[in-house]
Write the structure tokens for this entry.
Amino acid sequence: MDVRNELTARLDACQKCNVCTAQCPVAKVNPHFPGPKGLGPDMERFRRGQFIPGETTLDDCSNCKTCEVTCPSGVKITEMILEARRAARKGPHKTMLSLKLRLRGYVLGRAEYLGKLGVLWPGMANQALKLNLVRWALDKGLAVSQKGPLPAYGRPLEVIEDKGGRAGGAFRKQVIYFPGCYTRYNEGDTGRIMIKVLEHIGYKTIVPNFHCCGLPLEANGQFDKARKNGLYNLELMRPYLEAGVPVITSCTSCGLTLKEDYPKLPAPGAQMIGAQTYDLFEFLWQLHEKRELPLDFQEVKACFGYHLPCHLKAQGIGTPALRILRLIPGVKIRNLDAGCCGLSGSYGFKAEKYDKAMKIGNPLFEAVNVGVERGDFQEMLTECGVCKVQIQHGTSIPTKHPLRILAKAYKIILE
Amino acid sequence: MWDAIVVGGGLAGWTAGIRAAQRGKKVLIVTEGVGTLYYFSGIFDYGDLESLRHLPKHPYSLFDAEAIDRGKHFIQELCPEYIETNKSQHALTVLGTARQGDLMPRSMVLPNHQEQGSFVLLVPEGLKDFFPEIVVSNLVREFPGWQVNVKRVHAENFGEWQRMGKSASGIDYAAIWRSKEGQNLLAQEIEAIKREHQGAGSRSGKIAVVLPSLVSEYFDASRTKTYVQDYSLPVIEMSSFLPSPHGRYFAEYLKHQFTDLGGELMIGARAAALNGKPMSAKQPKSCQEIIVQSMGKVLHLKAKKFILATGGLLGGGIKVGIERKLIQEDVFDLPLYVPQEWSTSQFFASQPFAQIGVETDKCLRPLDTNQGRVIWDNVHVVGRMLAHWDPWTQRCGGGVSVTSGCAAAEII
Ligand SMILES: Cc1cc2nc3c(=O)[nH]c(=O)nc-3n(C[C@H](O)[C@H](O)[C@H](O)COP(=O)(O)OP(=O)(O)OC[C@H]3O[C@@H](n4cnc5c(N)ncnc54)[C@H](O)[C@@H]3O)c2cc1C
Ligand code: SF4
Ligand code: SF4
């Protein structure tokens, strides 16, 4: 084993430099939050002595992973925090308050079921979510913030079964698409456009009937369910993984979960999933490097600001969307890199966290507004669905998935 | 294919990356974490250039005077607030002692010891690791002709912190001083000080306000609204301490400069190895790609040139095994210069282990320590990773990193 990995696996790697806490967006706005160093490596020592901090303190971490990509010593901080949250679940803190929060955790964690309900009657769900009374009831009953930008529901993305028989058989060029709940239930359009783009570059897309990747469940304390979902999804992917078919994600949080958490599951596909999962643009870039990406772009004369979602940054692959979009004539993009948007999955929807989430997002909102005022760009691009919702909520600047620009350049969509 | 891939995002890596991007090159920076910039005082130490340049094998001996000046100009162009004078200039440490520095922000430069006047130390309430009593006693000692007074400032943003008995870090406070409300608050406090002094008919005319880390140098007008407050008295800012606000904002500023020039940053990724082959039996090898560990997968990244800026022992570029049995450079497995004696018993004496690093030729290409042959033709080593220097006793950390980073970028 690599000496350094061996060291980092141990908490002794932490030099107590406090750089992680200085960068943690939550610690900046919330004095009650002990910060990554406090909750991770420091507490780890207590935990070994069986002291477990309250679940609510631990819940303040939005799991944005800023601390981890910052740490000069490669300490696996969020892993320690997540472990602690698992332990706290089993701990003795069962108050009334935490009962209500658990119920909310149950609801917010079930992005998938909410999604299914929402798309059955999208019009009605959207109308209901707009009603002050409904939002008030959610706030009081479940502590879901009245002001938070809950996303709207649309026509869901259809499952596309594999009709070609054996995996990897009939079609040489095929991919598995893991759309994730947000694309599937809130933004089916993005998924459909993506399938067309993949078709344009010569790939057939299969969309098995996946469950939620598990990240929102984990973020809301539903660890067993998250694990079950992971095992179920991996089993669906297994034949394709074995046939060497790549798995594509367009949601950055699903992508991170598949790359970071699934390899740790006790299932046959686990050894393959990390290396075979690609963010959409990461996939396109490796095609481009092999000169297999069609470059039949029409000019798209536009300037964009770009927000790099925390969970894409944490994948350690840079900014492949910028690399690809810069191949399109006319496109100008500025990477704002102005920190976390604050929403972090369902974090900013929670009543007691709404104001903090908005404060966290402030530097990003400011960067967007300054850029627009200076005339640098008129629109924002970002891969993550909830970042998108939050940027629009914080700035009113239209924000899209970068895929749409690519689709426009390929003449697949008009706008 | 990139023109250059820089491994390591510390001061040396950013310098090389930005300079190369300024020269129109396509550059990727791959880095695991943020590097030691977060410990930066805000002052670039160059050390005694003349004598260091004549020390055998010292990194400065690889450069001529112009190369060193180019590095300084690079910094001054990025941050016009940085100045250098013919006389030696001093700044305050967080303890209130004077420290020499070579390239520092205008706002840090201390007045002449011989002058007379009064200092008013502004003490932000609940600032972590800041000890005003010690600062006052040191100021009194350093500046015998000066009167020293203290004034507390309360920033309501940290009211909740203070009520909990929790301290706020220098980075948190710097964020306040950079905001509109913070600047208005400061302006009011300073105006009040001025009026008090005029009222009291103070002993001498000259008054200076002293404040821990104001960090007004690195403003990115393309991402933040800038507020330029003119304070009614001169403000002297103290240099930064850990974790450093100057380092934090400088690192952000460098990152934005780099990406706005079209450079790409890949953070959270660790370079693990490289692939390449000799062009012929006698010639040095040429590197084709580096192997990088991203989340869940291994990436093969190709470039024409590679810059190694992984920061030595503290930066994580050199790994040391149990009981120092194994010591090796972590990415390219380059031979290291390792002194016979690891450490001397005197704590403040020059530590031999500080000299560990990669030996290079004048083009910063790694050498085989025995035969002195160039090993890789298109790999250049910069910053703390270089052998034969000691940032602590020679006080030249920033100077070596900036000079070597710039020089490497010029040959890309
Ligand atoms: C506490 C402290 C305070 C200092 N204060 C000052 C000062 O006030 N003024 C001054 O002039 N000098 C100062 N210095 C010295 C000076 O800052 C250093 O010489 C200089 O920062 C070294 O920079 P570097 O870029 O070579 O390395 P580092 O800053 O250490 O950066 C190395 C980078 O490489 C990355 N890395 C390492 N291995 C890998 C890998 N395998 N793959 C990917 N990335 C990798 C690390 O994550 C890190 O980002 C200080 C140094 C220290 C330690
Ligand atoms: S976890 Fe990393 S960044 Fe945080 S205090 Fe420890 S070494 Fe520093
Ligand atoms: S994951 Fe994000 S919120 Fe949680 S401790 Fe780390 S930086 Fe803070």
